Amino acid sequence: PFFCVAQDLSFKGFSNCKHPDELSGTYVNRDNHLSQLFGIKSELVYFIHLDFSEENTLRLTYETDEGLKNISFEGKFKGDFFEIYFSKKLIPIPLFFIKDTERIRIGCDEKSDLLIQYYQDSMGWVLFLAGGSTREDATSFQNIRNFKGLKPVFVNNLLGFTNNVGDFVVQPQYDFVEFFNHSVSRVKKKDKWGLINEEGVVL
Question: What average pLDDT score do residues 46-75 get?
Fold first, then answer.
């Protein structure tokens, strides 16, 4: 295990958040849970950067073995959370009715970690018959800045590592990095793969 905690929770609400940019940061994609919430299908995504600096927009930046990717979502800040609807349909047809809602709410918990609530509700009615399903859960993700160890950092679309005080120990130069495991990280630079130690020395 590395350093992210992704945990299903009994949802009790979000802690106070005055501005969505307070939620900006880099979070580890533990077991692909965070990427799945945003419909990212690649399995080689180790962390995702969330940027809320633009009004009513969430921008995601993440690395794969094919390079950096970016994706944006429109949403709205509602007090303590940023809300994004992936689907919001209400289709009335004579003798038939369909409702389909899928959304996430992004906020922070009492530890100031990222907290995402997922909600899906699908219902249909035909005459007096009805059927459907509802799913609701919440998951927390530890901010990478809270990890006591070397942290991957994006600079001008390149990756390096900083220590606990924010100093670079590996300068940004790589297109892809993995977290250090047993003091070794797998890295990619200009289509060439290699291994480095925690001092940045190529092995």
Answer: 90
